[in-house]
Write a structure and sequence with these properties.
The complex is a heterodimer of chains A (249) and B (491).
Chain A lengths: L1 E10 L2 E11 L4 E5 L6 H9 L5 E9 L2 E2 L5 H6 L2 E4 L6 E5 H15 L7 H14 L4 H5 L1 E2 L5 H15 L3 E5 L7 H14 L5 E6 L3 H5 L4 E6 L2 E6 L2 H9 L2 H7 L1
Parallel strand pairs in A: 3-10, 3-11, 6-9, 9-10
Antiparallel strand pairs in A: 1-2, 1-4, 4-5, 7-8, 11-12
Chain B lengths: L1 H12 L15 E3 L6 H10 L4 H15 L23 E3 L13 H9 L4 H7 L9 E7 L2 E5 L2 H7 L2 E4 H7 L1 H7 L10 H9 L4 E5 L8 E7 L10 E6 L4 E9 L6 E4 L2 E6 L4 E8 L11 E12 L5 E8 L4 E4 L2 E4 L5 E10 L4 E10 L5 E10 L4 E10 L7 E10 L5 E10 L5 E10 L2 H9 L4 H17 L4 H14 L6
Parallel strand pairs in B: 3-7, 6-8, 7-9, 8-11, 9-12, 10-13, 11-13, 12-14, 13-15, 13-16, 14-17, 15-18, 16-18, 17-19, 18-20, 19-21, 20-22, 21-23
Antiparallel strand pairs in B: 1-2, 3-4, 5-6
Classes of the chains: A alpha/beta (249), B alpha/beta (491).
Bound molecules: adenosine-5'-diphosphate and magnesium ion.
Organism (chain A): Chelatococcus daeguensis
InterPro entries (chain A): AAA+_ATPase (IPR003593), ABC_transporter-like_ATP-bd (IPR003439), ABC_transporter-like_CS (IPR017871), FeS-cluster_ATPase_SufC (IPR010230), P-loop_NTPase (IPR027417)
Keywords (chain A): ATP-binding, Nucleotide-binding
Chain lengths: 249, 491
Amino acid sequence: MLQINNLVVEIEGKRILNGLDLTVKAGEVAAIMGPNGSGKSTLSYVIAGKEEYEVLDGEILVDGENILELEPNERAARGVFLAFQYPLEIPGVSTMTFLKAIMNAQRKAREEAELTTPEFMKRVRAAAEKLHIDQEMLRRGLNVGFSGGEKKRMEILQMALLEPRFCILDETDSGLDIDALKIVAEGVNTLRDPARAFLVITHYQRLLNHIVPDTVHVMANGRIVRSGGKELALELEASGYADYREQAA
Amino acid sequence: MPAVQETVERVKAIDVEQYKYGFETTIEMDKAPKGLSEDIVRLISSKKGEPEWMTEWRLEAFRRWQTMREPKWARVNYPPIDYQELYYYAAPKKNPAPKSLDEVDPEILKTYEKLGIPLREQEILAGVEGAGSRVAVDAVFDSVSVVTTFKEELKKAGVIFCSISEAIREYPDLVRKYLGSVVPVSDNFFATLNSAVFTDGSFVYVPEGVRCPMELSTYFRINERNTGQFERTLIIADKGSYVSYLEGCTAPARDENQLHAAVVELIALDDAEIKYSTVQNWYPGDAEGKGGVYNFVTKRGDCRGANSKISWTQVETGSAITWKYPSCILRGDNSRGEFYSIAISNGYQQVDSGTKMIHLGKNTTSRIISKGIAAGRSENTYRGLVSAHRKASGARNFTNCDSLLIGDKCGAHTVPYIESKNASAVFEHEATTSKISDDQMFYCLQRGLDEEEAVALIVNGFVKDVLQQLPMEFAVEAQKLISISLEGSVG
Ligand SMILES: Nc1ncnc2c1ncn2[C@@H]1O[C@H](COP(=O)(O)OP(=O)(O)O)[C@@H](O)[C@H]1O
Ligand SMILES: [Mg+2]
């Protein structure tokens, strides 16, 4: 589903990704772990199409199509979703209004009919309930005054409603207490599907107890330096990233 | 929420025609010679069949105007206007006051239809649709009021709604009593010019105790080249009455600038209420800043009676230059003034707009909510005055001014003046300036919105408190206009 070949990325003249290769198959949950500053968020932004990153080399294929020339919204319409490490606030735009706008924008891009209001409400209610998001929150400005944990749950709510095919979760576990972590993990697990792939970025092993990955990749200095099964995460938990830092240095 | 969708549809549709109202109509026109003199003033007055007192009133204004200078204090820049190079009177030919729509030049009707006001349809629908959703329209084409709909029906309720020219002929006592009583002839350079040469506009009188049974609306359109448009609107709400009035404006896209200098006077007597809404969409000029309407407007409401209320709501999206300060004189005790404004500037537009709330009576209250949005290379200034006179004990004002910047080549400025001569007056002022950040844009795009949709969504969120003040029928239209005017503001 996702194939990244020799990705080289700079920002402000500083090289962040250094010939990164990564493959994620349909139905797979791949975890990326790595020390702070190793380029995990950069990778997620580049896949989603953030402008200020300069791609010097390589390609990102989604279902065989190179998406590097596409606008972020075109990538979104092809099913790329990024749950942000730091979700943005949009004052004045109620969460409900925002949800309806994004759902209909994507439907339109796929030439599907607009959702009726009752159908929209039904879907939002059902998804919100699973994530323990109350109706009052949906009436507030998007992410405005939300706690860190509420913002992360709102990201998962959007993911559930948009039903993307390729989901990137950038440190969705940070700032969550254990109960919230379980709710979020449950939300992700119910979306697991043979046609859908996940890239779960995390600094800690903790999240991976609840979202059990098929593969684990270790990132250091803008590269995947080691790949393995879920046991690799446990090993990292025990030994830390020290080895990789040195290796990179 | 369907409105957001409409906004989205709308933005999609406008790639081809940036300014959708920029068409020209070919109609034979009856034009006065270029330039301004006492003779031209007399000519205008006689073309309108005005009585002697009106001609004198105009001449006095003209003489006064010759001694005045254009004001320079606003934050707007434009090349000098040569007032002798303009035409002051242009009227569609074969136009001796149409009795019904059938007598109106079909070309003009077509124009209004393009503007989205199907006059004919409205009259046909008159008997069919439920009251309340209907709107009576006075359509002003260049210098002349072309047609007023629903006149007869309004008359039954006792409401007079007609062109000001007709009012001068038919209701001279009312006009003489109130014309110039809120905006005096010598008020300011543009108002004085208007007093000398105004060619048409609307007149409304709502008698004591009457709640006007429908929205009243005027559409102004400048069509002729080099024609100044000087409308005069006079609205009187007698004791205990209520009226809601909406004004819409468009002009064709032209390279040269068109001058528009209107005067609007509102008078609310005891316990009366006037709600005046404007959706202003004059041609703003092209992407390089060429052409566009210069809009120098004097709008003022007088809460003359106790417990009266005047509320201004404006959505300003067009014009190359906007110089406009709809104000309220809170003369009656317990009277209330409101000003709700959305002012959008894009391209090279310059907006200097705001309000004045003059508290004269006891326990008078006022509320100002201003939302300024600047994009492109535009400059957007809010200028407001709140004052309390010695006798205005218990006066209260709340002001909230928010500015939103799109991009980094535009400017937003807030210039609030406060004057209080009464110690018991309480004035509150809040102001914020924010910017649509690249990160917010990326976030919206990541969720599937395109740039125009994202901006429209954020802007609509920003202005929604004010949009809510508009009559329902026009809120949707205003929302569409907002997204159209922000076309091309990003990227
Ligand atoms: N906008 C930026 N400008 C300059 N440097 C940046 C920018 N964004 C990220 N970086 C740098 O890129 C490196 C990788 O950052 P990031 O991708 O956020 O790592 P991670 O998510 O793994 O912690 C860090 O050294 C960071 O300082
Ligand atoms: Mg990160």
